[in-house]
Write a structure and sequence with these properties.
Blueprint: E1 5-10, E2 13-18, H1 29-43, E3 50-55, H2 67-70, H3 78-81, H4 91-101, E4 106-110, E5 113-115, H5 117-124, E6 127-130, E7 135-137, H6 151-154, H7 161-165
Helix pairs in contact: 1-4, 4-5
């Protein structure tokens, strides 16, 4: 694991913190890898009873760091799109879906911005609590993209199908 995600334990509860506050906890390759590694570590702890997931600083997670797409050292290929052993999700999806795979309740504490991939991570938790300053967005739909860090799997357990299919009539997107 790397310093992008920090795990602390207090008795039977683990606290998992996205730790990139200077970038609003945006998801880069190290964060994707660290989130999956954190979930793997927690899954092996038999005495674990619950997980609290939150972001460092003033925000939960601003979604994918667009620098991932322009970084020449990052090669997004078929290998990265394959499911990781023991999961139904690939590296990117696993950042969100791994929390559903844990055998203990996962509580996500949201504050500040929770955009795109950050919202999809939150949807992977069993419970979500949002501070009054929380802001949410899935911008992919505005650009005609499919947000696929597991939202198509996790959202249906939270929101009824008729609400998911309802068009946006707010005029904002």
């Amino acid at each position: 694991m790397n310093d992008r995600v920090k795990i602390t334990r207090n008795a039977h509860v683990a606290e998992v913190m996205l730790n990139r506050p200077e970038k609003f906890n945006a998801l880069d390759m190290q964060m994707f890898e660290a989130l999956g590694a954190a979930a793997d570590t927690l899954a092996r702890q038999a005495d674990l009873r619950a997980v609290i997931l939150h972001g460092a600083g003033d925000n939960f997670c601003a979604g994918i760091d667009v620098g991932v797409f322009t970084d020449p050292s990052v090669r997004i290929d078929q290998e990265l799109m394959r499911p990781i052993d023991g999961s139904r999700a690939n590296l990117f999806q696993r950042a969100a879906y791994a929390w559903r795979e844990l055998p203990v309740p996962v509580i996500c504490a949201l504050h500040g911005v929770t955009y795109g991939g950050g919202l999809q991570i939150a949807l992977g938790a069993d419970l979500r609590y949002a501070a009054a300053d929380s802001r949410f967005s899935i911008m992919e739909t505005k650009w005609g993209l499919i947000p696929d860090m597991s939202i198509s799997t996790t959202l249906r357990h939270i929101v009824s199908a008729d609400k998911i299919a309802e068009p946006d009539r707010s005029g904002s997107g």
